[in-house]
From TrEMBL:
This is DUF308 domain-containing protein. It comes from the Bacteria. The chain crosses the membrane at residues 12-36, 57-75, 87-105, 131-148, 154-172. It comes from Natranaerovirga pectinivora. Keywords: Membrane, Transmembrane, Transmembrane helix.
Length: 188
C-alpha cells in the first residue's frame, strides 16, 4: 500500500505544479490525475477494510475534466476564460478533488481500524477534517471572488488553495510512511 500512497503523492504534485513552456505544457494536470488514479488502483488491490471505488471514479472524472480543460484552453487561446461555465471550472475541479481525497483518507481510516490501529485511525480522521475545512474555506473564498469579482478575496482564496494542497501532500506523505511502518511491524 505504500506504493499506492507514494503514487498519489506524486500525482498530486504533478497535477499541482505542472510545467508549461510557452504554449506547450510538459506535464499537464491530467497526467498527475492519471498517476493518482493508478495509486488508488494500487490501494484498492491491497486494501483490507477501506472502499476505494468512489475515489477511483471521481479521479477518472478529474482526468477527463483536466484533459477537456487543457484542450479548451489550448484551442481557445485566452478566450475560454471569459466563457461562463469555464469561469467556474476551478471550483468544479476543487469540489471533485475534495471528494477524491476525503474518500481516500476515509478508506485509509477504515484500513487502520481493520488492523486495530485506533490511534493512527484517529490521527488521520483529524487530518481528514482539517483538509475538508481548508478546502471548504478555499471554495467559499473563490466563489465569493468569482461572484462579486473581488481580487483581494480571490488572492486569499488562491493562498488557501495552496495551503490545503500542501497540507494534502504532507498527509499523503505521512500516510505512505505510516503504512510502511505497519507493514514492517507485521513482518516481525
Amino acid at each position: 500500500m505504500t506504493v499506492g500512497y507514494k503514487r498519489i503523492f506524486w500525482g498530486i504534485f504533478i497535477a499541482t505544479f505542472n510545467i508549461t513552456i510557452g504554449i506547450l505544457t510538459i506535464l499537464p494536470a491530467f497526467v498527475g490525475w492519471i498517476v493518482v488514479l493508478t495509486g488508488i488502483s494500487e490501494l484498492e488491490e491491497k486494501t483490507s477494510g477501506g472502499d476505494f471505488s468512489r475515489p477511483k471514479i471521481s479521479a477518472m472524472i478529474l482526468v477527463v475534466a483536466s484533459l477537456g480543460g487543457g484542450i479548451l484552453s489550448l484551442l481557445g487561446s485566452g478566450n475560454v476564460e471569459s466563457f461562463l461555465p469555464m469561469l467556474f471550472y476551478p471550483l468544479f475541479v476543487i469540489a471533485i478533488e475534495l471528494v477524491v481525497f476525503h474518500k481516500i483518507l476515509e478508506g485509509s481510516v477504515h484500513n487502520f481500524n481493520a488492523m486495530d490501529q485506533q490511534e493512527i485511525a484517529n490521527k488521520y480522521t483529524g487530518k481528514d477534517r482539517t483538509y475538508i475545512i481548508l478546502t471548504g474555506i478555499t471554495m467559499v473564498l473563490l466563489s465569493i471572488s468569482l461572484t462579486i469579482n473581488h481580487q483581494g478575496t480571490g488572492f486569499i482564496g488562491v493562498v488557501m488553495a495552496m495551503i490545503s494542497r500542501i497540507y494534502l501532500l504532507t498527509a499523503m506523505n505521512s500516510l505512505s510512511k505510516e503504512d510502511y511502518k505497519t507493514d514492517y511491524e507485521e513482518k516481525d
